Fold Sodium:proton exchanger.
Amino acid sequence: MEKISATLALLGILSLFCQWLGWKLRLPAILPLLIAGLLLGPGFSVLDPDALFGDLLFPIISLGVAVILFEGALTLNFKEIKDHGRMVTNLVSIGALITMGICALASHYIVGFSWEIALLFGALICVTGPTVIVPMLRTVRPTAKLASILRWEGIVIDPLGALFAVLVFEYIAVASDSTTHMLTALGLMLSIGLGIGAISGYLMGIILRRNLLPHYLQNTAVLTIMLGVFVGSNLLQEESGLLTVTVMGIWLTNMRGVDIGEILEFKETLTVLLISALFILLAARLDSDAMLSLGWGGLVLLLVVMLVARPISIWFSAIGTSLKTNEKWFLSWVAPRGIVAAAVSSLFAIKLEALGYEGASQIVPLVFLVIIGTVVIQSLTAGTWARKLGVAAGSNQGILIFGASKFARELAKVLLAREYRVVLADSNWDNIRLARMDSIPVYFGNPASEHAENYLDLTGVGRVFIISPYRQMNPLVSFHFQDIYGVDKVFGLNSAEAVSARHQMSETYVKRLSLFGEHMSYAKLSSMVARGAVIKTTNITESFTFEHFVKRYGDGALPLLYIKDKKLHVITGNTKNTIPHDVELISLISAHALLEAKGVDALEQSQQHAQPISKEPTAEG
């Protein structure tokens, strides 16, 4: 018992370290987790999951996979699939079937799998997943369109690919039972999986929509009920539980009027822990002899997956889309396999070995070989490939603004009109709704959350503005993005209001709160906008210098940003009075200053009558 406790504690510490290492190195965490498992298991024989957990190992893996599939299913919103274009829709349907078919054929003829095992392998290997795609995109930085396609393909194919694999496995499991008519058994399994999944998803949605549970119990209740449904479905019909919980998650996320935001965030946090520990256990179970026995056949199959199946699926899926040739070639190279393939293949291999299927023991090492090969090779080469094809995004001039107030929305519209990428993030739905009405890209929720890791599209973003009234969240968001972009790329407003000792911010953090000026706070910005201040652009030239601008508007003008040579420069307390020539200045000007400037202009014109103005006119928008 003490050995099991010590092992579980070690798994927790290793999981945390591997997740941190992946984040620090900007690599998918699956790589450190895989290395840790291989070192503990086949490497140094420190961890033997089968001997340590005995009969408990299979239930642990089963429940872990059930949670992973349910969490993945919660992300499968059919409306969002349609919203992200024809290419994504084609990739997760036509493209997935093409990949599955080619991989099945290759594994049958190259490795010698039976047709049943080959089809299962093909279904497992068509899954990419956001846990491996998102870290890679942050390093590679392709254009926004390509990043969006890859990210949403990973999000959608995660549950769909797992569902394909579950259906294929259930067919194999039913076909192996000679005492039961195959069609009857398969029909019963599908009926129970689809029926109970839909009913339980609907009932869970009703409970959440009508607030029949207190808020603090909702996350725990959904997890507990889901596990109960999984076990109950398996009792009614063996092997139907995974299909049931997948359908349950899909039904729940597509119900109207059901907010699953917090549930999804809780499940993602839980899944990170489960994925980490489970993946170390699964990697530790790998047989080094089985990996070596794959030989050249395994390597040839890896090449088929990367160089044949993926390009063919991309080019067929791109028919009828506006993708260019270089964009298709880039997409053809990037398709790393992830956690779902590893977890589901390990679970199915255990079950198929119990059923006596020949070749089932080779599924896991072959899937892990594909995971290692695609993640390592593509992580190292995708950036160079993107630059060679001319699809790299270049310097990230875009801005993520935390806080979607009226000021932030007006600033975003000015920047978007000049073709700079801007994303507004806020946990206030009214602000998000108003931003959407202005066609501004938004993220509803905490941008520093696990959910945002997968769903907040930061393609082209290189700086973060903290412009929100949430004083407790602001430091958390600031520190989170300092780790991603660096300290000098995250800017915040000062807070002139006194706060309690409990909520005092560190001195080093306060020093960085000089966005738009040392003493500019959220309250002052909001007050200016409420009194009619507007955001205007002004050309600062040699004939109309920044000193002229200050003289014209006085203290009623607040410089925000300036554009020089198509690059955005942020104005802070340190740079406020150092605006160069030949720039486009973006500033917030009070209604009073605008009226006074117009009055001065009218007076000068009346004094000069129709005489031409000697100085170059100011260009303002």
